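At this stage, I wrote out one protein's amino acid sequence and its backbone structure tokens, and that material follows here:
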Amino acid sequence: MGSFIIRRLVQAVFTILGVMLMTFVLFRLVAGDVSAQFVNPKLGKEQRVAWLKKRHLDLPMVLNFQRHLVITDKSKGNGEFAVRDAEGSKVATAMMLEQQEDETIVSLPVQWLSGETPLIDLTQGDPWVERPKAQKETPTTQPTTQPTTQLATQPTTTTAPSSRPARTVKPMLIFSLHDGSELTIDLSPFSGKAVKKRKAAGPKKEALCSDLIRLINEHPDNQGRLEASISSVAIGNIWNSQFVWHLSDSVTFQNRSYKTKQLLLNIIKKRAKYSLAISIPAMAMGWFLAMVVSSIVAYYRGRMLDKMGVFICVLGMCIPYLVYMIAGQRLIFEIAPTAAWGLHNRANIYIPVGIAVIAGLGGSVRFYRTVFLDEIGRDYVRTARAKGVPLRGILFRHVLKNCMLPILTSLVVSIPFLIMGSLLLEQFFGIPGLGSLMLSSVSDRDVPIISGLTFLTAVIYVIGLLITDLLYAMFDPRIRLR
């Protein structure tokens, strides 16, 4: 049995890994960027990048082969090494240049960065200079002489175009070095009309990262004081990717909601009790009633009790689940309005439990009745009835034990709902459980909550399958776990 359990646990690990991979593909790759829903676009690119970086969404999807453009100050002195844009230039902002703790300046990381990478990848398409403002027309007032018959002379306003020429802005980086000097790098050859000419000449003429490195290193005023290069890929940083963080945060329940910024573990502790208060009583009562009713109607097969029972079960299965909720809420609203929604009254939890039991009773009875009929037709049951064994002894001592295998299989399907609760019931009756949280998270695109709850559901489900296999061997001695 020990080897069987170990093998099933290994299978469970790969199953959960597959579930998390599907979740990642659906909500990260297919859904796209969710930052626009949680970050005001008017705040600018810096706020959006900071939001993505805080949640590890700026990393590559699966494997991290990102590199930086690294600029190092080789001069000696006590000055501060920094970079800034010239007036009207936005190169440092476009490249997201920032100073590191090791006294180097790095650009925004780029996947598979090399000398052949186009410069547009370093700036993500952002302009390198400020857009020129439109020239405003200058109104001028010129008086005109009106005829003497008029009461007053009114000035006539004419508009004269401004003669001020448009200001030319060049993309330039200004580096403050340790030795107290400054080095200005003019990037005009890589922007504006120069870039358009390069692109028109073909892809090989497009400005590349190696061109920028050469411009900095071979600048006439540089003289070896400033060195530009491309960083190397760190082996330990390869797994620093979105999928690894997605998996790690889900396993440890350290996900934080994009909307409320609450920790998922705290959310589960707060909301799981409401879901359990609905699902556990509903599952226990529904299973007990379905077993009793199905065993009775199966014993009296073909008689009026069996026919009426099957008719009522089929009728109950044909009624939509939403009808039960609307009718139940309407009924309780007429009796006790405060108990119809929310948690203002302790009785609020009884209505969802009753609806869950009644709505699922028809299908359960039909399934269990079929299982009982298959077992009641056995020879040992006919022998027991011929010997005068009472009905209770036949059903609950012999038949029920031999019918437990398919019954246990059906119960496994409902195990995840012990924690997740009923999605529709919680949302309809205003119960703050995990089911209603899942629905609201889907509509809000709150990916950490969705992935964390999906992981929790998958873990509970595979554990339920393992327990079911162990119970198979307990109820049927013919089964051996190998």
